[in-house]
Amino acid sequence: MAHIPDGFLSAAVSATTLVAAGAVTAYAARRSQKNLDERAAPTLGLATAAVFAAQAVNFPVAAGTSGHLLGGVLVAVLFGPWAGYLVMTAVLIVQALIFADGGLTALGANVLNIAGIGALVGYGIYRALTALAGEGARRRGLAAAAAAYVATVLTGVAAGWELGLSGVAPIRLSVGAMAGVHAVMGLAEGAITGTAVWALTRKRPDLLYQPRAPATGGLNRAVVLAGLGSLAIVVGLLSLVASAAPDSLERAAIDLGFADAATAWEGAPFGNYSTWLPGPAGTAVALVLGIALLFAGAAATFRAIALARGAREERG
Amino acid sequence: MGFAHLDRYADRPSWLTRRTTPAQRLWIAIAAAFAAGLMPPGAWGALVLLAVLLALGVRAARVPPGALARRVAQALPFFLLPALTLPFTVPGPTALEIGPLAFSGPGLVRAAEIVVRATLAVSAVSVVISVTRAADLLAALDGLPLPRLVRSSLALGYRYVYVLSDEFERTTRALKSRMGHASRGRVWRARAAALAHLFVRAHARGARIHSAMLSRGYRDHFPTLQPARGGSRAWSVAIVCLFAAIWLGGVFEAMA
Description:
The complex is a heterodimer of chains A (316) and B (256).
Chain A: H1 11-36, H2 40-55, E1 59-62, E2 65-67, H3 72-79, H4 81-98, H5 107-133, H6 137-165, H7 171-203, H8 217-244, H9 246-255, H10 259-267, H11 279-315
Antiparallel strand pairs in A: 1-2
Helix pairs in contact in A: 1-4, 1-5, 2-4, 3-4, 3-5, 3-6, 4-5, 5-6, 5-8, 5-11, 6-7, 7-8, 7-9, 7-10, 8-11, 9-10
Chain B: H1 4-7, H2 15-19, H3 22-37, H4 44-61, H5 65-84, H6 86-89, E1 94-98, E2 101-104, H7 105-130, H8 134-141, H9 148-179, H10 184-215, H11 233-255
Antiparallel strand pairs in B: 1-2
Helix pairs in contact in B: 3-7, 3-8, 3-11, 4-7, 4-11, 5-7, 9-10
């Protein structure tokens, strides 16, 4: 579901996303060439092969179904965001051409959704969380899991916007449905990514991508603020759409057989959209507040764990 | 996962393979996929024209229609399932009622259009892919306007995907033989650890390949021993233009 096939996007959306993806890809190529020097080609080539091999492994989910890894956050944690983006782009090109998984006309959109959001945004969230929480194996694993989950949901939201703008279905329907599907799929992605990063940090912490310049406090704070800001903006936009007709959103979810997604929607903080402000503005405020609260809560918990660890190590 | 379907019909001489190089064929496939995939709603005449052209292409490439149908059937769930939701989600007057299900008229039309467009695009790409050898396809990909790092990732990725999946299979087989009747949580953890180990191995092999490449004088490019020969530029340009013309015709048809 994550890959948009041919025939769904309009010419305008297809062309816009292709141009945008091309620009990001060119920039990413420059950045990773600088980061990796001459080792770039073999490192990225082998990473591409590894993602293909990894996607063949099925993880048991529930009731006989299974899922496989998309891998954006995992690759970014290992090879850096820009290199991870290029690896995912190469994987998407092969999938579109050889496996008919995702269309050629939707390649730009799929690259932006899966490589862009998976590797770039996902890595941003991961960095923000590790900056708050610290570097231990378990904390890194949890941060990667959270980043992979959020990135997967955002991938669905972006795909929903692209489908909606193409006129396939009303935007609020497509965004709601895609976000709902990916809210379920993201659970597996988060769990697999988190466990793999946990195992990697325990085995070979030296292999994890280390940003060139050692991060200073100011930079970390900036990364955190940027992550928080972009999250709030995206969710705010989403809530504006959703609030226009929350009923039809739930209906779509039920029609599509994602009743759980609908209940998850309702169970969100400030669930029934009832706040002191009337209309869509109130809903937007409620959802932004809800997400900000969630983020602040996660951050505070991570920070608290890190502080407790530090204190115990000092004593012992 | 398998690349077996790639080389299946590559060695059959056919009208298409005689007249086009793999790179030209790739551009034809891209043009066909774009013409079909981006056809505006309501351009049924142009879609029929594309279908006729595709049928001619299948004959010209000498791909058995049954084999092509199987390939398309494998890709079908990717677009059929999302399209099936449209009759229920697109608003409009109800056209059909089966028990509790109410299909909206505009939704049915839109779903049908999407399925036709996607089927045509997927079959066009499959025809070209199945008459082209994997190695030739990679050389053809080298000609696309992609950054050098993406092209080298594609080339190296194809060269080593079998090596890595074999290694990974050995790891997981060893894992399975030691796990017994483990709980689901343990299976998950072990598989994720094996996944992490796969990337550790990929990293180590990448370092070895790097020194091997250096010692053989690698200069940013993988040379091919058999440069593509033959092909006729005029034919490929004509076919690409034909697809573009059909798409434009479809745009006008939709506007009219």
